[in-house]
Amino acid sequence: MTAWTADELDDIGSVVEMRIAALRPDGTPRSSVIVWVVRVDDDLYVRSYRGADAAWFRGTRARAEGIIEIDDTIRDVAFVDETDPATNDRIDAAYRVKYRSHGAQYVDAMVTPEVRATTIKLVPR
Q1: Pfam families from the entry (predicted)?
Q2: Extents of the domains making up the chain
Q3: How much is the pLDDT for 2?
Q4: How, if at all, do strands 43-46 and 37-40 pair?
Q5: What is the pTM of this model?
Q6: Residue 34 phi/psi, 5° resolution?
Q7: E strand intervals along the chain
Q8: Do residues 17 and 34 make contact, with C-beta atoms less than 8 angstroms apart?
Q9: Given this model, what pLDDT does residue 1 score?
C-alpha cells in the first residue's frame, strides 16, 4: 500500500460527496453509492450513514478493496477498519465541522455509535 499525496489529500478531503464501491470477489465493482468523506491529518475516512446493514458497507466486509470516484477520477483503495476511540473522536469532529451546513440531523447521525462503528480508512492501492 502507498500513501496519499498532498494533492490527493487536499482534493479528496475537500469534496462534499464522492462515489464509493467495494469490489466483488471476482474483482468487478459493486454498485457505487454517494458518501461523505473527511480528512484527519494524512488519512481519509468514510462511514456508512445507514450503519452496518447498508449494502455497500457489507460489500467492504467481503473484500477489503474498492474504488472511489470523484468527478471523472477513479482511484483504487483498500478499506481498513478504524476502531481507535481517539481517532474516531477526531473523525467525529471533522464530520461536525465539514458538514455543519448540511443540517444537524444528518451530522448527528454520522457520529452515533452505530455509524461510528462503520468507520473505514481509505488507503490508496
Answers
A1: DUF2255 (PF10012)
A2: 6-124
A3: 79
A4: antiparallel
A5: 0.95
A6: -90, 135
A7: 18-22, 33-35, 37-40, 43-46, 65-70, 73-81, 120-124
A8: yes
A9: 57
How many Cα neighbours within 13 Å face the side chain of 121?
Answer: 18
Q: Which residue has the cell 483498500?
A: 78
Residue 29, C-beta contacts closer than 8 angstroms, at least 6 positions apart: 21, 22, 23, 66, 67
CA dihedral 37, 120, 40, 96 (to 10 degrees): 60
Longest dimension (CA), the chain: 40
Q: Which helix (H) or strand (E) holds 89?
A: helix 85-98
**Looking at domain 6-124, which of 3.10.100.10, 2.30.110.10, 1.10.1270.20, 3.40.50.720 is its CATH number?**
2.30.110.10
